[in-house]
Amino acid sequence: WMRNESVDTVCDAVRTTCTATYTVSDHDTDGAVSFAIYLVDVAGNPRAELVSELSEGTRIQVDLTQPQLAVSIGSPSGRLVGLSGLVVLSFNSTEPLDPSGFAVTIANADVEAVCDEKALVCEANSVLREATPSGRITFSIMYRDVAQNRGPVVIASTDGSYLDADVQAPSLNEITTTTSSSATANAVGVGRQVIVRFSVSERLRLDSTITIAGDSNITLRCDANRIRCTGTYTVTPDSIEGPVAIAIFLVDMSGN
Asked: How far is CA 33 from CA 21, 55, 150, 240, 254, in A?
């Protein structure tokens, strides 16, 4: 008997080596596979006791339970991730997983999952590409346990974590220059100011900079939304005559 059911037994020609096979069904319960062997020799002598323990090896366990995952998504960059930003998808399982049974995607790209030695704690990483769509970063995890039970496909974190992608660099919408000179707007002397105003397509980070007439130490002042900014340069005796060169370095909130 196996699991309290009578099973067919097949023996070799001399009937000293036998095999009994039991097929697990969805009516089984999780746990060790119990068995009992009743032996009778050709002379009709029965063994005094049933055999119910293995002489070697480990007893097989029935596992029909789907594994469940606890999932979190994050990035060293914060909630908003830019081009080449790292996305880390972490998941823990209620039981050991089959490392060959993963199919994981992050932002529509296939990625590899790596687990600890017990196959309970796993992680998959991805770097955002130019083709990554802007907005909420999607992911999916397909998996199975070592008993080949497939868990439900996971497409959302279990702790409420999420990330947004922004891989597009900010664009300059408009730029104007004025001066504090009362004589002419096209020429300024010592002590006068060159004022550069511009607006951009999205919120700028604090490390955005402006260089005017070779001076990179100019404070960039922006509105509360950081999309309209102004840089002011004061002409000094050391300023070089000629057209005023302007260079603007833009960085959006996701680091593009």
From this structure: 12, 15, 21, 90, 55
The pLDDT value given to residue 187: 75
Phi, psi of 101, rounded to the nearest 5 degrees: -105, 15
Distance between CA atoms of residues 229 and 89, nearest Å: 37
CA–CA separation, 200 and 207 (whole Å): 15
Please report, as a single letter, which amino acid is at residue 44.
Answer: G
CA nearest neighbour of 128 among 176, 186, 76: 76
Q: How far apart are CA 69 and CA 10, in angstroms?
A: 42
CA-closest candidate to residue 1, choices 34, 42, 24, 29? 34
Could you tell me if 70 and 159 are in contact, meaning their C-beta atoms sit under 8 angstroms apart? yes
Tokens matching residue 73? 């998504």
Q: Per DSSP, what are the bridge partners of residue 154?
A: 141
Instruction: Note whether 86 and 75 are within 8 A (CB).
Output: yes
- For the chain, which ranges sit under pLDDT 50? none
Tell me: the pLDDT tens digits for 1-39? 677 788 889 999 999 999 999 888 888 888 888 889 989
User: Pairing state of beta strands 80-81 and 164-165?
Assistant: parallel
Enter the DSSP assignment of 97.
B
Spatial separation of the C-alpha atoms in residues 218 and 208, rounded to whole Å: 11
Helix (H, G, I), strand (E, B) or coil at 99: helix
